[in-house]
Amino acid sequence: MSPDAERRSSNRRPLETAVALRVVSTSLSGLSDNLSDVGLLLTLEEPLVVEVELTVDGERVVRTGRLVRLEPLEALIAGVAIEFDT
Questions:
Q1: This prediction's pTM
Q2: Separation CA 27–CA 29 (nearest Å)
Q3: In 8-85, which ranges are continuous DSSP H helix?
């Protein structure tokens, strides 16, 4: 078992479907951590709230949640992890 699997609070299952992601938070504030000529790292004072729309087993599902991880995968492609509200 991988170390990541041990930390997961819920089982995963493969799903490949189109997803629409809407950022609900209209304004965020935080503190800068560092700055360079090409970017800025900051810490937010509140979660980035999102709404996710997708199709699961032929049924349209809309859930709200928060962004918990953003991973650059390639030059213009990122992996986004959302934790759904309960």
A1: 0.75
A2: 7
A3: none
Ordered strands of the 49-56 beta sheet: 19-23, 49-56, 59-74, 77-84
Q: Find tokens 């959302």 and name the residue.
A: 82
What is d(CA 82, CA 68) in angstroms, rounded to the nearest whole number?
6
| Alpha carbon distance 8, 63 (integer Å) | 20
**Dist CA 21 CA 44 (whole Å):** 20
Chain position carrying tokens 């170390």:
3
53-68 pLDDT, tens digit per residue, is: 999 999 999 999 999 9
Contacts of 23 (CB under 8 A, 6+ apart): 48, 49, 50
Q: Among 8-12, 24-28, 66-70, which range has the highest average pLDDT?
A: 66-70
Cβ–Cβ under 8 Å, residues 71 and 79: yes
Alpha carbons 15 and 55: distance in angstroms, whole number: 10
